[in-house]
Amino acid sequence: MQTAVIGDEHSDVPIILPTEAIALDVFRRDHQQDTFWCGLLLGGCGGQLATKLYVDRQCHFQHKPLPNGAPNTCRRPSVGESSADHLYVKSAMSRSLLEFGRAARFAFPPPIGSLVDVDLEDGLSLRIHMDAAVQPDWERQGAVILGPGVVPDPDTLAGCPYIYRVRCDSDGANRSVWIGTQSLARPTEWVPFSECTWTDDGLRTPAASRILRDRAAAGSRPAAPEASSGRGALPESVVTFVRGLEAAQRTGTVDHVRRLCNGSSSFLDGLSSTARAEAERALQEAKAWLATHEEYQRRIFRDLEAAVRERRAWDVRSGIQQAASLTRRGASVEEHRILAAARAYLREHDYADQFPAQAALRRQLHYRPAPTAAKRPGPSTSKKPNRAKESAERARALLERLDRESDLLADDELAQLVEELTRAANIAGPNLRDPERRRVASWGRKARQRRPARTTATQPRARTKPATTRKPESPARVKLDPLAAAVKTILQKAAAVGTTLTWAQIRAQLPPGLPALERSQQSSVLIQVDRSRAGTAPLLSALVTGADHDMHPAYPRIAAAAGRPQPRGDLEAVAQWAVEVSRFQRTQ
Fold first, then answer.
1. What are the tens digits of pLDDT across the range 84-101?
2. How far apart are CA 282 and CA 278, in angstroms?
3. CA quadruple 309, 313, 318, 324: dihedral positive or negative?
4. Is the peptide bond before 511 cis (omega within 30 degrees of 0)?
5. Which of 80, 101, 334, 532 is the most buried (most CB within 10 A)?
6. Closest CA to 92 of 32, 8, 178
């Protein structure tokens, strides 16, 4: 092992052992008075360590013999240079706080090495996620800092001005700690921890200070002025256009910003000089935002393509999640091609890492176990345990892959993997533990929920009358039919987490026993849902999008039926819709 702690088994002072013999001689002279331990905060056993010098291979720490002469059975989860990064981060943060006269309490919740909790004396708190073992909880009190392997959800990134990242780099026999500032429209900017400051709001990097200054400057200008220079109120179409541009930037939806910018020429032609100046100001800011974000997105996909070409599996696996999240907000055909190539490479890489028997089992997509033969005494049954063990290992590998990549898989890919997982689990028999079998059953349920609902042979139900023939009712008096009530519940859950849904995703979440949701019913169901809400509430129908996460073609008609102003043209419809979607981030 390369890392240890100095002092005793409870110490949080990390140390890295040099790998070269010459450097180890210097290390020993510098630490003559120190003792080294397999620290509990490293996930170790607490035993004392000695330095082991080699001239033909890497030097390392090794456990000192036990008093009874028995071999040490320590099983630390990680022993490389990065295994003590959580302690280096704690040390760097402690020094930084001390420079600003601040104090804090540190804790290391399990799993050891994955989390660092920091509670400042003035009530502020933050949690550092060194890896992806524990998903960040953005609703909890305090700030969140993400390690290099943790990919933030794009909706989260769009909903805040920036997030902090942390990484550690080797610096001789030490590890230097860097803090990154990431935002949706800018590449991550890294600085040493020593260049960060502390304010009443917590940690502050130079990049974060600039972002907050820019936002404050933008906020000092009216988002959509109602009047200017004594010439009366701006036209409602200009107010909608400006608000739509700003809402699309706030939610990070690249395609909508691009669509509004590209379609603005004819819109500007019919405006007065004052109204045109205000619209052009908003367009200039939107185009600058768009250029920055497009360059950021191109770089992400360029790096992913290079990683696939150079067959760097680790970089592909970490980059594919960020690239896939960006496609949710608009991607070109070429970017979709790069993403597909990355997925294909990872599947190929997964095959190569398996034993030949496991790889063959994975490739047999339509494999079915042979009928069980009658038991025969003798050696003919001797191969069954090996096959069962291989299936158990394959099931565990599939469970790990589903846990890691389920959000990146299409519904049919997920169903195929779960089907294979079920077959492997059946063959494995008692070689799988009960918790593993429960995880297999859980994935079976998830796959069924994501499977599009099938049309069932039920009694025909009365057709819903067109919404236009109904008399307007107050929301309190509107009684939804079971199908509309179920759709409303699904959309309210989507609104709570700030996401959009396609009709296929809605169908997959409908409770069993309901009639099939036909295409011809979709608009009338959404009109029912929106009419059942308060007149000032955001329209839940805005959360229903096409497969490309763009505005659903039926939205303008549904919005008009729900009492919204009728848009004049496609450009104004997109602007109205972008504003409506952004309202959920402020009201939910």
1. 899 999 999 988 888 888
2. 7
3. positive
4. no
5. 532
6. 178
